[in-house]
Structures are given as structure tokens and as C-alpha cells.
Amino acid sequence: MFSFLKKPQRNKVIFASEARTLLVARDKTLLEAMLTEGLAMPHDCKVGSCGTCKFKLLDGKIRELSPSALALERDELLAGYRLACQAIPRSDLTIALDAPLTVQQTVDDYRATIVSVPRLCPDIINLTVELDRPLSFVPGQYADIGAPGVDGLRSYSFAFAPIAGSTRNLQFHVRHVPGGAFTDWLFADDRVGASLTLRAPYGAFHLKQSAAPILCIAGGSGLAPIISILQEALALGATRPVTLLYGARTRTNLYCLDEIGRLKATWRGPFDFIPVLSDEAADSPWQGARGPVTQQIAELPIEMRYEAYLCGPPAMVDLAEAELLEAGLAPDAISADRFVDRSDVR
User: Fold this and answer.
1) Complete domains list, the chain, with CATH
2) With CB atoms 3.0 to 4.6 Å apart as the test, which of 48, 101, 115, 329 could cross-link to 128 if both were Cys?
3) 38 and 104 in contact (C-beta within 8 Å)?
């Protein structure tokens, strides 16, 4: 009764200059809807801090989960730009994108069972799961993971490159964020055998096919997609020189050293690994680099015209990107993946 008074459950989004429309559920953001439909939309964080997923609102109304002003410049806001990851349509929309709309891999839902959770270092575990059916993904991409009784989904990058085109066995490097609902749940007990929900694949962070030397800068669990990308490059027979800068707090926070050693030993060209510790005790026997990992950029021969891959905490990635641009690296030579904790934004 009175069904004619009910508001529509989905709103239509029209892409200006594109022969395509999209239906968005009333509880979903524009970015969520685009990714679910397999539409490629640049994004780094999904929580409104990086500003990558901006679009121009030409007509219609939205509700913002957090103000776009936190990540966009004033002139962008005045021009009508908003963030797709924070925009929930409240009417039919007409929008414009800065780049042509393209189709990526289809995102799907999977059931996952936790197989093992070995600790890699004091605050990071290797979450290994088995899916109900095979998944295909590109090294560098990520999945959204949910746990029973925990609200929402969390994004984690795939931590290895699949040997075949698809696999049921996945690994993720999960850092414990005190107060974070998902990681508190995961670290609180032995979760082997527990069920998870998984939605994938997402993301445009990937290995580019070129002859340029590779520069990887990672911090914390941002090492996961970097390892995955390098494994793929090795499998493809890459001979490009590699420089891997990895920032950790102390020696105990360094991890995946065996896998990095294997990559270095089997790489078909120069491979330099430079671990950098920011909080190592002054009287420790550590003989390696100290300080913020971004300080090492000044020591690099930027004239080599690297192809850079940056992954880790937003502040680290932002600073590394700014310094590489200042040193003369072209913007399209830099790929970035910012690992943002929800607690850092809300």
C-alpha cells in the first residue's frame, strides 16, 4: 500500500560524453558501485584522504560521508569536483570524469576459509585463506575482506603472484591496528578454520611493461603488493635493474627477508635492497640506513629515469611522490598505493 510514495531503491548515474549509465543502490558510494560493475576508476585509499577518485558533479544531489574539502583543492571544489568514495547519490546524477571510462575485471563475491595466520613480525601476520572457487587477479590488486560480527569490509593487497592464471589460495599481510575492529578480531584468537567474505579483484596498481629501471619504496605492510609485483616481473623474465627501499621502525619489524633474498638471488639483473629503520635504538648493532625511508631518495641516481612503485602509509607515499617529482621524475612514471586505516580518517 502507498508503494507509489516510496523512494526508488537505486539512482541512475549518467556519465557525460559516455554512452553508459550506472545504477547505484541508495546505501552504496559511487566508487563502490563503479568497481562492482567492473568500471575502472582511479583510487588509492577509498576513505577520502588521497583525492584520486575525484569526479565532476554536473547535476543531481549526493550525500558525502566525509567532506571532499579534506582532500581536494578549493578551485576543484568550486568547479564541482567531489570524491566518488565519499559520494552516495541522493538523486539521479550526471557526472564527468577526467579520463575516458574503461572496463576492468569483473568483481565478484567469494567465501573464504582461514588456513593459517603465521606471524611475520610483531604486528603483521600472513593471512592465508582458501576460496570456494578460483579467483583471477593482477599482482598489485587488492580484495575487500569481511569477518563475522565485524561491520564493513577492509581492503588488503594480494601478497603473492599466482603461478597460474587463477587460484583458490590467497595470502595477505595484515598489520594489527589497535582499536581496529577487524584486526582486533583477527589477532585476538586462533582464527584457523574461521569463515570470511571476500570481494575481488579491485585496483589499478600493477606492473607496467617497459624497459625502465624499477624503483620500489614500501613501508610497513605495503611490502605485500611490492613483493607480488616483483614476483610477477621475475616470472616474466625481467632484466630491468631494481632498487627496493623498505622502511620499518626497528629490526624486529623487518619481514619477508627470505623472499626478498630469493628475488635478489634469482633476478636477471642488478637488484639492490635497502632496508631503512626509523626508530632503531641508537646503541643497537644495526649498520644499515636509519631515518625515514624517503631520505634515501636523495641518494638515488634519478637520472636513471626510474619507473616508481610506492606503497605504504599515506604520509610516506605523499612525501616520496613529492620528492620524486621534485627530482624530475615524470608523474606518469609513478604508481602509488596508499594504505589508509579507517581510524586515521574518521
Assistant:
1) 10-103 (3.10.20.30), 108-202 (2.40.30.10), 214-345 (3.40.50.80)
2) 115
3) yes
